[in-house]
Amino acid sequence: MQAVNTTESWGWVTRLIHWVMAVLILFQLGMGLYMTNAVDDLLRQYSLTQTHKSWGFVVFVLAVLRIMWRLVQRKSPGRPGDTPVWQWTVAEVTHKILYLMMFIMPLSGWAMSAASPNQDLLNMKNMVFGVWEMPDPWVPGVKSVEAFFASVHWFGALLLTAILLAHAGAAIKHHLINRDDVLKRMTYGR
Q1: Alpha carbons 93 and 163: distance in angstroms, whole number
Q2: CA angle at residue 119 from 115 to 123, to 5 degrees?
Q3: Which three-class secondary structure state does DSSP give residue 128?
Q4: How far is Cα 190 from Cα 184, in angstroms, rounded to an integer?
Q5: Are 126 and 138 in contact (CB under 8 A)?
Q6: Which residues are CB-contacts of 76 (< 8 A; sequence separation ≥ 6)?
Q7: Peptide bond just before 140 cis, omega within 30 deg
Q8: Options 3.40.50.720, 1.20.950.20, 1.10.10.10, 3.20.20.480; which CATH number does 12-186 get?
């Protein structure tokens, strides 16, 4: 399999970025749900939150790399001939929303935690894997800014979940019902 994209299939670089990001985004959604709803111990919640922030940063970096790679790799597989135009339009809109959410989720999470007054009160830092500190534009924290970005993050997670379900459902539909190569082009085909 070649590294670059063709008009018939995605290259291995695109596939690798796609699947690594898919795993990380699903992990982040699950971790976010778990740490906000199932963990009562504040120290455990703090530890999970720091891990969540760190992996969110990784998702953001991968999203930037993905966009850069997409700009370099202009070729992409076209739509199968029997796919109606309306379905392809929905797929394109869905992909644009997915790309947008890959940036909105990490940025809103960072802004939410950076704006938290509790962070300043407790002298907590936004650390990436405990190695380096992310910038904090809100010192001291601003509760209204934190609340705004918390809402963006929460509703973004709901939208992202819905879009991911639609995306995966469409890929499975193409594979099982249409019996075309849409899923194969991003997995093991060509």
Answers
A1: 10
A2: 135
A3: strand
A4: 8
A5: no
A6: 5, 7, 10
A7: yes
A8: 1.20.950.20
Which pair of tokens denotes residue 5? 């994209």
Q: Give the model confidence (pLDDT) of 27-80 as tens digits.
A: 999 999 999 999 999 889 989 999 999 999 999 999 999 999 999 988 888 888
Specify whether the CB–CB gap between 139 and 120 falls below 8 A.
yes
pLDDT beyond 80 at 137: yes
Verdict on whether the full-model pTM lies above 0.85? yes
Single-letter amino acid code for the residue at 61 = V
Two tokens, residue 125: 């830092």
DSSP letter at 40? -
CA-to-CA distance for 4 and 12, rounded, in angstroms?
7
Instruction: Supply 53's token pair.
Output: 């922030």
Q: How many helices (H) and strands (E) does the chain have?
A: 5, 2
Q: Specify whether the CB–CB gap between 28 and 56 falls below 8 A.
A: yes
Residue ranges of domains in the chain: 12-186
